[in-house]
Write the C-alpha coordinates for this entry.
Amino acid sequence: MRSPLVTRLSPSVRDRLPAALAAVVTVAAGLTVRAVTDGWFGKYAGDALYTVLIHTLVLFVAPRLSPVRAALWALAVSWAVEFAQLTLVPAALSEASVLARLVFGSTFGVADLVAYAVGAVLAAAGHAALQAISWADHA
Protein backbone atom coordinates (compact mmCIF):
# COMPACT_ATOMS: atom_id res chain seq x y z
CA MET A 1 0.00 0.00 0.00
CA ARG A 2 1.36 3.42 -0.94
CA SER A 3 1.55 6.26 1.50
CA PRO A 4 -0.49 9.39 0.70
CA LEU A 5 2.73 11.32 0.09
CA VAL A 6 3.92 8.86 -2.57
CA THR A 7 0.48 8.88 -4.19
CA ARG A 8 0.61 12.67 -4.60
CA LEU A 9 3.95 12.59 -6.45
CA SER A 10 3.92 12.93 -10.20
CA PRO A 11 4.29 9.65 -12.10
CA SER A 12 7.71 10.76 -13.35
CA VAL A 13 8.99 11.37 -9.83
CA ARG A 14 7.30 8.21 -8.53
CA ASP A 15 9.03 6.15 -11.24
CA ARG A 16 12.45 7.64 -10.46
CA LEU A 17 12.28 7.70 -6.66
CA PRO A 18 13.32 4.04 -6.16
CA ALA A 19 16.39 4.56 -8.37
CA ALA A 20 17.36 7.72 -6.49
CA LEU A 21 17.00 5.95 -3.15
CA ALA A 22 18.97 2.96 -4.44
CA ALA A 23 21.75 5.31 -5.59
CA VAL A 24 21.98 6.83 -2.10
CA VAL A 25 22.07 3.37 -0.49
CA THR A 26 24.71 2.22 -2.98
CA VAL A 27 26.96 5.22 -2.30
CA ALA A 28 26.58 4.62 1.46
CA ALA A 29 27.47 0.95 0.96
CA GLY A 30 30.51 1.90 -1.10
CA LEU A 31 31.74 4.39 1.49
CA THR A 32 31.17 1.83 4.25
CA VAL A 33 33.07 -0.88 2.39
CA ARG A 34 35.90 1.58 1.82
CA ALA A 35 35.98 2.57 5.51
CA VAL A 36 35.85 -0.90 7.07
CA THR A 37 37.71 -3.13 4.61
CA ASP A 38 40.93 -3.10 2.71
CA GLY A 39 42.81 -5.40 0.43
CA TRP A 40 41.27 -7.22 -2.49
CA PHE A 41 37.77 -7.43 -1.00
CA GLY A 42 37.48 -3.69 -0.47
CA LYS A 43 38.83 -2.93 -3.93
CA TYR A 44 36.68 -5.35 -5.88
CA ALA A 45 33.55 -4.80 -3.77
CA GLY A 46 33.98 -1.12 -4.57
CA ASP A 47 34.28 -1.92 -8.27
CA ALA A 48 31.12 -4.06 -8.16
CA LEU A 49 29.26 -1.30 -6.31
CA TYR A 50 30.44 1.18 -8.96
CA THR A 51 28.49 -0.80 -11.54
CA VAL A 52 25.51 -1.12 -9.19
CA LEU A 53 25.54 2.69 -8.84
CA ILE A 54 25.63 3.11 -12.61
CA HIS A 55 22.69 0.68 -12.83
CA THR A 56 20.70 2.93 -10.47
CA LEU A 57 21.63 6.01 -12.51
CA VAL A 58 20.57 4.28 -15.73
CA LEU A 59 17.22 3.52 -14.09
CA PHE A 60 16.90 7.10 -12.94
CA VAL A 61 17.17 8.21 -16.57
CA ALA A 62 15.13 5.31 -18.01
CA PRO A 63 13.04 3.87 -15.16
CA ARG A 64 11.15 1.38 -17.32
CA LEU A 65 14.21 -0.54 -18.53
CA SER A 66 14.25 -4.22 -17.71
CA PRO A 67 16.75 -5.44 -15.11
CA VAL A 68 18.90 -7.12 -17.77
CA ARG A 69 18.97 -4.12 -20.10
CA ALA A 70 19.80 -1.72 -17.27
CA ALA A 71 22.56 -4.06 -16.11
CA LEU A 72 23.98 -4.33 -19.62
CA TRP A 73 24.05 -0.53 -19.93
CA ALA A 74 25.74 -0.26 -16.53
CA LEU A 75 28.30 -2.89 -17.50
CA ALA A 76 28.99 -1.19 -20.83
CA VAL A 77 29.60 2.17 -19.11
CA SER A 78 31.80 0.56 -16.44
CA TRP A 79 33.86 -1.27 -19.02
CA ALA A 80 34.13 1.85 -21.21
CA VAL A 81 35.52 3.80 -18.26
CA GLU A 82 37.94 0.97 -17.47
CA PHE A 83 39.16 0.69 -21.06
CA ALA A 84 39.55 4.48 -21.18
CA GLN A 85 42.17 4.02 -18.49
CA LEU A 86 44.42 2.60 -21.18
CA THR A 87 44.75 6.21 -22.33
CA LEU A 88 46.32 9.06 -20.37
CA VAL A 89 43.05 10.99 -19.99
CA PRO A 90 41.63 9.38 -16.80
CA ALA A 91 44.98 9.56 -15.02
CA ALA A 92 45.31 13.26 -15.86
CA LEU A 93 41.74 13.94 -14.71
CA SER A 94 42.35 11.95 -11.52
CA GLU A 95 45.37 14.08 -10.67
CA ALA A 96 43.29 17.23 -11.08
CA SER A 97 40.26 16.18 -9.02
CA VAL A 98 39.33 13.75 -6.26
CA LEU A 99 35.85 13.42 -7.78
CA ALA A 100 37.36 12.54 -11.17
CA ARG A 101 39.54 9.93 -9.45
CA LEU A 102 36.44 8.34 -7.91
CA VAL A 103 34.55 8.34 -11.20
CA PHE A 104 37.30 7.51 -13.71
CA GLY A 105 40.06 5.82 -11.71
CA SER A 106 43.54 5.96 -13.09
CA THR A 107 44.91 2.54 -13.99
CA PHE A 108 43.54 -0.31 -16.07
CA GLY A 109 43.03 -3.71 -14.46
CA VAL A 110 41.58 -6.84 -16.06
CA ALA A 111 40.27 -8.04 -12.67
CA ASP A 112 38.22 -4.83 -12.47
CA LEU A 113 36.30 -5.96 -15.56
CA VAL A 114 35.28 -9.13 -13.72
CA ALA A 115 34.23 -7.15 -10.62
CA TYR A 116 32.09 -4.89 -12.81
CA ALA A 117 30.40 -7.97 -14.32
CA VAL A 118 29.67 -9.29 -10.82
CA GLY A 119 28.17 -5.91 -9.93
CA ALA A 120 25.99 -5.98 -13.05
CA VAL A 121 24.69 -9.45 -12.17
CA LEU A 122 23.97 -8.39 -8.59
CA ALA A 123 22.24 -5.21 -9.76
CA ALA A 124 20.06 -7.11 -12.23
CA ALA A 125 19.15 -9.69 -9.58
CA GLY A 126 18.29 -7.03 -7.01
CA HIS A 127 16.31 -5.03 -9.56
CA ALA A 128 14.36 -8.13 -10.65
CA ALA A 129 13.66 -9.07 -7.02
CA LEU A 130 12.36 -5.58 -6.25
CA GLN A 131 10.19 -5.65 -9.36
CA ALA A 132 8.74 -9.01 -8.30
CA ILE A 133 7.93 -7.63 -4.84
CA SER A 134 6.38 -4.51 -6.35
CA TRP A 135 4.26 -6.53 -8.76
CA ALA A 136 3.14 -8.82 -5.93
CA ASP A 137 1.98 -5.73 -4.00
CA HIS A 138 -0.13 -4.64 -6.98
CA ALA A 139 -1.71 -8.06 -7.55
Notes: The radius of gyration is 16 Å.
